Amino acid sequence: MISRIEQHHQYDPLKRVLEGIHEFLEVKNGIQNNSIVIPDWEMTIKPQVEQFKDNFAVIGFHLFSSYFDSPLYECCASTGKDGDLAVGSCVGSFLFAFMNGIVQMKNGENGKPVTSEFNGKTHKWQVYNSDLVGMGENVNSEEEDTVALKYWGMLKDEIVKRLGNQKLCYVKIFASHAVGKDDEQVIGEVRINDVPSRELSEVVKKHAEKWNVRQFASQKQFFFIKQENAEPCPYSGENGRALLKTRVKNALEIFNNANADEPLNDLLEKMENSLGDISLANECFSFLPEICAEHAFPQVQYPEIVQISVDGKKPETFYRNQLAEFYPIGQAMFELFSSGVFGEETNDVYRKLIARSATYSGIYQHQKNGENLEDLATTALLFSFPKGVEIR
Question: What is the pTM for the complete model shown?
């Protein structure tokens, strides 16, 4: 949970963030309505002070642009001798890593071409990497150019497998290694469109374990992967996201109003008629219960892939990141729950969805057997869609 912002005297951490970005961002910008506006890029940066206390700060940065499928997000946390230095360090991390990559992408600098395959189609991309930003000890012995591309070389093949038909995919890489008096702590994190990848995070963690560190070292880097001639997605952009949320709300209402003994085919037919999009209706019908179950049992390890069969054909395997609506419909659902549109029925809707999931059915059996859920790793789910469903 986001902690309450604590204001110290007259110091305004948000003002400090806005002024820092405005001053040091290498493109014409202005401050409007507690946001940074970049007219030439049609982009808005909205910072949010998520935590601020004594010598510690956590700042979230939301980026909005019609050139993105959905807003981008970066979170920076830092300590300092005082609160102002901690905030300043967050701003520096955001500018020198995240925004450094955005600037290169917008200027078309140093792009690297890659090609991916998704649902029988070839997609061409340009990859723009930010500078590699390190803190603490220097663990690099390679030449500077080699260091800048180290993580891309390490993860390229696996990242490309996870590309679908987005306008833009962004990847965050963070590694750290800390040595204490009695123990060591190593962190590896890879997030694709702000969704953590357990498989890729493990690769980065194993890399950081090899660092020769006396006390502490960390590295952060971003990759912005822009598709050439991306096909339009019906739910991208501000209007598209609003439409998606409306249709997800309709789907949730149908789930909530269904009788316990109502045939599944009847329920799906209601959803298809109400949403007016057979593909989205089947995704909501199939994915939302599983997303709720995974949210309810976060200690279990879930695969990054799903299998989908359309019209009885041989199932195909897709990474969840590839599917245009998988994560957005889940985000829309939880935003609806948080906004209170279902009132006192919110928990009931949530529980009904969990009960309908194949994920919970499997977890329940393990619970009955007294097994430790932290040791449980589920297998990829298989979804069967009718003729006419488009894999987007």
Answer: 0.92
